[in-house]
Amino acid sequence: MDITRELRNLVSTGEVDFGFREALKAAKAKKAKLVIISKSCAKEHIDKIRAIEGLKTFDFEGNNFDLGAACGKPFAISMLTVKSAGESKILDLI
Length: 94
Known about the structure:
With about 90 residues, this protein is of the alpha+beta class. The chain has one domain (about 5-85): CATH 3.30.1330.30. The chain is built from 4 helices and 4 strands, in the order H-E-H-E-H-E-H-E. The chain has helices at about 5-15, 20-30, 45-50, 65-70; strands spanning about 15-20, 35, 55-60, 80-85. A 4-stranded mixed β-sheet has the order 1-4-2-3, with helices on both faces.
């Protein structure tokens, strides 16, 4: 699976949130299906997200700028929350 292609497809056809605070809100509300975490995300944020029972996570191989670029955004993204996969196959990662 080409993760970059699936991320762009996800962002254009699915429902996503960017950032730690949004990931935490969606996870607590049980709306998050998957949280994609960049390598350069703060350890305390990763620990808080992974502590939420039943939440699936995926470690993105690049840093936050790489994740932003993979999503087709001109800014850094530390975490990407998948609420709806749209036409992408991103949920096949888990």
